[in-house]
Structures are given as C-alpha cells and as structure tokens.
Amino acid sequence: MKNVFRMLGLAMLFAISGCNKAGKEGSPKDPAAKGGSASSGAAGAEATVPNGPGELLVWVMPNSPKPEKDMDALLEPFKAAHPDVTVKISVLDWGSAWTKLTTAAISGDGPDVVQLGTTWCPFLTDLGALVSLDDLDKEIHVHDSFLPTTWAAAKPRTSEHVTSVPWFIDVRPMFYRTDVFAQAQVDPKSLGTWDGYLAALEKIRAAGIKNNGEVVSPIGFPGKNDWNVVHNFAPWIWSAGGDFLSPMGDKCVLNSPESMKGILFYLDLVRKGLNPKTNMEKNTAQVSADFDAGRLATFFESTIKNVYLERPPEQGGSAGSHVAGNYGVLLPPAGPAKRSVFMGGSHLAVFRSSKRPDLAKMLVRYLTADSSAQLAYSEISGFLPALKSAFASPYFSADAKRRVFRDIVPYGRCYPAVPYWGEIETAILMKRLGNLFDIAAEVNGPYSEALVKAEMDAAVKDIDGQIQAHFKNHPEQVELLHKSLAAAD
Amino acid sequence: MGNVAAAETETVPARDPAGAPVPTVDQTVPVFPRTDPKRKNPVARLVRSIKRHKVPYLFLLPTVIGMIVLQAAPILQGLYLGFLRSRKDKLLDYLSAPWAGFENYAEILFNPDSPIRSGLWDAVRNTALYTVAVTIGTLAVGTAAALMVNREFRFRAAARTLMLFPWIVPTYVVGLLWGFLWQREVGLVNIVLVDWLHLFSVKPTWLIGPNTLWAIIIPTVWRQWPFSMLMLLAGLQGIPKDVYEAAEIDGANPWQAFRSITWPLLKPVWAILILHGLIFNVYSFNIVIMMFGNGAGFPGKHGDLLMTDLFRNSFQMWDFGTGAAMSSLLMLAMMTLVFIWYRIFRDQLTGK
Known about the structure:
By secondary structure, chain A is α/β, with parallel strands linked by helices.
C-alpha cells in the first residue's frame, strides 16, 4: 500500500502542477483541446510557425543497441533541413514507460513526440493525451502507404481521428538450426503446417542430438513469468480460427472450440515434452540465450534477433558463434484455419502538451513517411518498416532471411484496437493464460482439457465483465464500434 | 499504529526537552484537578501547553508539517478516492471523478462475481501465511544469530558486519537473484538440495505451483533476519552482565538463565520486531514482482500477495477507486491487527 500511496501522492503533485498549467492554456477537459486539438488549432498561434527555432523533446524506447546515438544519426537529414531546431532524445525503459506516459498525460508536462506501443494508442487517444494527426494523414495517407495491420492503432476504433502514425513493426518468425535439422534429416520445407511442424519436432527429439553434452530441445517457449505470454499464445489461437474478442470487440471468445484448439496445441508442446518443462520458469531473454548457446532446435523470436546474430561481438552481437553460422528463418507454420502471426510494433504520436505541434508533426512525418529513414532504422534496430514502399528496397530481396521477413508481413495480425484492450491483456489474460502453464506443468494435479476449458471460461467471464463495465461508462462508444466494423467490411 | 502515535503525542506536552525545571509526567496530574473545566477541553489544553512550551513546539513544527504533507494528505486523499468512480477514463479528473458512495466497497465485499474478487482470496491466504512464516522465521534466525554473536570470540566484529550483508541488498535485487537460484534445472538451490545432498529424488519445481510460497518466504527471511539480529543484539547488550553473574552464583544453568533473564528482558524488542514484521510483510511487493517476470506476468495462485493483487487491480485494471477502497479496507484490517498487538504487548512496552 505504501507504494500505491506514494504513486498516488506523486500523481496528486503532478495533478496540482498540471492544473496550474491547464489554467493558463485552457483546461484539459476542454472538448476542443481533447478531441482534435490540432484541427481546431488549440495549440496557440505563437507555436504554429513550423520553421522557427525551437526544441523538440522525443521519447523513445531502447529500440536499438545504442538508442540515443542511433536516433541522433537517424535524424541527421531532419536536423540538416531544420538547422534552428534542436531535437532532444530521451530513452525510456519499456517497464516504466507506461507510468511515465500516463503521468505526463495527467500533468500535461510531456514530450513533443512519443513512441507508443500499438496497444497503448487507443487508451491514450481515449484519454485525450494525443493530438489529432488528421492533417498529416491527408499528406501521407496512412491508409494507403502503411501496412494494413497498423491502421487500427493509428485510428483506434473508438476514435474519429488519426492520432498516431506507424513507425515500425515487430513480427516473430521461426528461427531454426540448420545443422540440427540436417543431422535429424528434417526438411525445413516440411514445417509449413502444424502437422508438419509437430512431425519435425518429434523427429528432432528422436534423433537425440547433443550440444556440449546436453540434449538439444526441439523447441523453446518461455513460461508465464514473462511479458510475452499473450503474444506467444496469439498466433496459435488465430491460426486455429479462434480469437480473443468477437469481431465487434464486445465479447470474449477465448473459450470457443477454435480458440481452444489453438490453446491446446500450444500447451501440447509442453505436455509432449517437446518444450521442456524447465522452460516454464524462464523468460524470453533466457530462452533466447538458450538458442544462442545451442540448446534449442527451433524457437520464435522477433526479427531483431537476426540483427543480433549478424552483428560482431564488439558491437554487442554474436556473429562468428556456432549458432550464428548455422541458423535459418522460416514462416511460422499454418494452422488448420490459416497462417497468422502476432504483429506488434510502435507508432509515433504528438503529445497534447507539445508547444510546437506542427514542428513535431514534421518530425513524425520524416521518421514514418520517409522511405530511407524507415529503411535506415530497420537496419539499425532489426524491426521492420511500417511503410510499404520501404520493402521494395534490395535490402529485403537480396538476403534469404530478410526475404522471409518480408513474406511474413501479410500474415501479421494485431490485437483489437479498443481502449479496453490494455487491462484485458495485462491484468486478465496474463493471469489466466499464465495459469494454463501451471495446469500443463501439472503442479496442482493431473492435467485435463476440462481444466483448461474451465480456466478459459473464467477468463471469458472476467473479460466480458470488464467490457461491460467499460461500455457502462462509455455508452457512446458502442455506436463507434459498430461504425468502425462496418468500415472494415 | 494509531495507538502508538497517540500514546507518544500524549506524553510529549508533559515533557520539557529544554530541561527547564518543570514537573514530570506523573506530577503534572495534580496540577489540573479533575474539576478544572480547561482540562476537559483538549484544544484548550493544547493551546495552554503550546503557550507554556513555545520553543519545543517550534522544534516539532517541521515534523508535523512533514507528516501532514507526506502522510496525512496522501492517506486522506486515498480514503476519499475509495468513494470515487475513478477509472481510466476519469484519470484526468483525479479527485473530481464522479462520486460512487459505497459502490467500490460493495463490489469488493458483496459481489462474488466481481473481477476484483477473482484471486483475492488466494492473495489474502498467501499474505497471511507469508507474513506469519516470515515473521516467525526472521525472529528465530535473528535470535539464534544474536545469541551467537553476543559471545566473545575472535573476529566477532567482522562476523557481525558480514552477517548484515543480506540486509543491505535491495529487495528487488533479492527478488531477481533468487529468481535465478530457484530455477529447477540450473538453479543453485536444487543443485545443493538434490545433486549434492540428495534430499529429494526428483528436482522440485519452485517457481510454479504450491512451492511458490516458499520461494518467496525463504528469500524474505534471508533478507530480513539481520535486522532482527541487530535489534536483538542491542537488546542483549542492554542486559547488565551482573544479572547473569548473580544467576550463575545461584546455580542457574545456561538454559535457565535464558528462560528467566534473556527471554523476559528481550520481550519488548520481540514486540517491536513482531510489529515491524506484521506491517512490513503484509505490504511486501518487490520480491514477488521482481521474481516473477519483473512486473510482467502473474505470480500464480500460490505466489500472489495482497500488494501485487492490489497493484494489478489499480494500475493494470485502471480502477483506482476500487483499488483505493481495497487499500482502505486493508488499512482498517492492519489497524485492528496493530490494536490487538498493542493489547498483547502493552505491559512489555510500558514497562509495567
């Protein structure tokens, strides 16, 4: 409670300081400032000169090995075009970013440009923390220029404005060991479907290949003590034809037969011993290190892993290691319904508190709509561009692994862009899907599908309750949801 | 807690830190006879007292201001928040969020279908077991260690210093560190217990399932026992040597000396340590959050504590009203506990 109170106390202090500011600049509850501050020009006349001298504060996450330096290098062309403008880069940690962002939203004392995880966009939009980017959208055409999976977060389903522009995307191909596959006589092409994947994993296990005296595990997935629990379940659920929420986004369908099929397939990898139970105690970083050490034959990881494996050790990579010389990448296997991969990523948005929103928009425009900036950042970070035209570069066609990355993109899928997704994911799904690992590991008694079903029934109950509570407070959003669904069709 | 504070402030006006020749606590009583109307009015009494002891009250002022700003104000607004419908969409309204009355309390106490109730009982049970086990554990280990380092031996000072090491490790580091130690295959705990000592035939899983509770109790005891040792050591050194010498002359063996001298004379220290253990461990957060995914993930049915549950419900569900109501209920429960504690140990603390 001490912690909670301390944070609340802090929030109060910020709220007080924020109120003073708001008094001068117009209340944050002012609908003109909230809904579409840019379109209504609420930013103030003195700040609308885009080319005058000034300072822009940009908040980014550690997306690349040297986040600050890399961003500075990336922004060279922008700085050359705007010599009067100083751009200050602040690197936030993913763990604390959310608290800092919401505090900044409450206090009104935030950066100009901010990197947002896709799942944060709807909530911050709802909160009125982001400036409308409709005018920028008219110039860069988010709908035509960027990958379709990114649209939803750019203009959340309960919003009438574009509030963020896609910056980069994060997809997870399958990484595999070419030498282990050769030894076990597994053809990588046979891994195109769930059945083929399962057969290959069994074959690798039967071959009993050893690495430094340890048996190489067919696959490595982390357990529940990890940020990626929901992301790891998602592709299996979607590929089986299931989903988290109904198409309307107003009901949870995690206990449907299709969703259950995907969940059970994923859990079966543990049950059959293909993913060793010891991995259930590990997080993504530990499993990823296991792959580097040669303990895994296959595993799913973001494309940034590729950059790490290609980069020389003096730059923090592992090029030259045994694994770095013996790995390949594949499209994740297709399920009974389709092939679907989880797609995350980040958007850039302009904070409501920005004193130079028009300049901030130009910076967003440079980072997102400039093909060479998109490509340059992909090369440094390993994430993929969000801009469609960037994929035409030979950077993606000349290399076999990057060709796979490019080919995965159309299978990418995001979580529903609804403002209540955040708490569904972090508070409910993390817990309920995490509990499935306990059931699979049989820590509380023998495993049964009925136990899995019961846990998912409980998840549906929790989530439906949460959604109902949201609509009770926001009856006006029901109609917006209907409208956005009709537009999607 | 409230009682202790009250007890302290009551005695303060009677004392004179400046050392002026004023009557002591007991002697002040006859100065104000019961019939004096001014005595019945506490405000008038306080004003009178302030007038009489201006300088001491001036010295108290910074503390009083500090307590109002840093403690009273957040506690009051926390209590107030519990009566508001403060969800994420009302985040910007903060304390002007819509009034909810007892809605949040009703949700926690009387609605078994409420999402906030899901897993709450597990958290309450785990917290109770955790607090009792950790408090007893730290007291036992701390007492044994204090008795040990209270004896004369070479390098005693070095040993005392070294024993404080676990205590200076921050709790979140303890969580991270033990997260590695508990790993089933590669963790040091299983290597020692199974590979070296052969205590179990199969390597136990610590970080998932019912063992999780032990996986958080043991590191907490490991982190906290040096503090108990330190306090008890101070207590032990406060016992005059001649009492033991007298006991020895009377023919008491070491066990009898412990039973009849050490045990009763250390009781006030134990009382303080039990109180500290109760409060500190019910509000334990860092170890669990760090050991189970650095804030990600769910510690599991057997590892979730009240604080982590409250954190999820407030900061991840974005329901600060219900979170504050839950905190208030917890505070009420804790005050009851402290009251019971005070009734039990009152004699030891007041020296009667």
